Amino acid sequence: MPIVNRIADFHAELTEWRRDLHAHPELRYDVHRTAGFVAEQLAAFGCDEVVTGIGRTGVVGVIRGQRGAGKAIGLRADMDALPIVEANDVSYKSTTPGTMHACGHDGHTAMLLGAAKYLAETRNFAGSAVVIFQPAEEGGAGARAMIRDGLMERFAIEEVYGMHNFPGLAPGQFALRAGPIMASADTLEITVEGLGGHAARPQFAVDTVLVGAQIVNAIQSVVARNVDPLESAVVSICMFQAGNTDNVIPQTAQLRGTARAFSAGVRDLLEERLKRLVEGTAQSYGAKATLTYRRGYPVLVNHRREAEFAASVAANVVGRDKVDDDMAPVMGAEDFAYMLQARPGAFVFVGNGDSANLHHPAYDFNDEVIPVGASYWVRLVETALAA
Predict the structure, then answer these.
(1) I want to staple 336 with a disulfide (CB 3.0 to 4.6 A). Which of 155, 162, 191, 375 is the partner?
(2) Topology given in CATH for the domain delimited by 187-295
């Protein structure tokens, strides 16, 4: 059961939509143009319901099948872009300074719009397909905002599915796994308080640069010596700011970074050990340090039954040999994790081919993937909601 012919017929139109979205990227919850375009298209398709303002700027469309009553399943695409200056020289290059679609959410939106158009035309299923267009995936927890706005209850969603493009995976291929597939993402903010002084007289100061450097080194022992070697975790310090001249030992230093894990237990361990280690290391040098540990997106865990079902649908679209149902988990994070905490479901990756990596200024979504992803959505609905 390959790509749906009807979707292939309007591939050019979907590509045009995707490139228009690419040229007009919007950040986090400020996706007013994008959400307006999505709502306009859903209404034009003849969706039974089109609801805006879910999770501030999210859009939901409901398409009821013609084969009678049944359950409702949710299909989610994210809409927001990133604060990156685009390096691509294409006709549809970003027209918004300092902002671009560097993660493919323009493509995700186009694929789900294509599926919605087809499903609204054919309605060859029982129950309801609920298409979810979400704002603020990039750090704004838009999925959580939509859930808190009653997304699951209002539309009686029983299962929910998501999809993301994957550079380096061949176009027309899918990858997923049951269980943890993407990591939790927490933020570390460390403030070191020492005693400033003249650089020529360090004996009368408490050097926050030295203390901060020791903290950076010590932090690496948490993953190496506290986390079970059979588990996975990452702690990275990505910002170190102290002082503003070459002859003054700074009074304070600021460090920031991220902690990632694939289980709640390891996540708890990281928070507890990092706090003790940061405070203890600073104290041993006569300084004081405080750690602010902010929990971000949780671990994204695919439910086994729904993951196996998603893999079978993908295999029906592209062939079993083009579906990896036991991919290695990735340390990136995704707020679709909140939706999978609220309802059973699965998150899959679809190949974007040999493109630049996600969040790179030269990244671009591969338009040849649009009918593949849209066909996956269609077959998922028609199979899950077969009469």
Answers:
(1) 162
(2) Alpha-Beta Plaits (3.30.70)
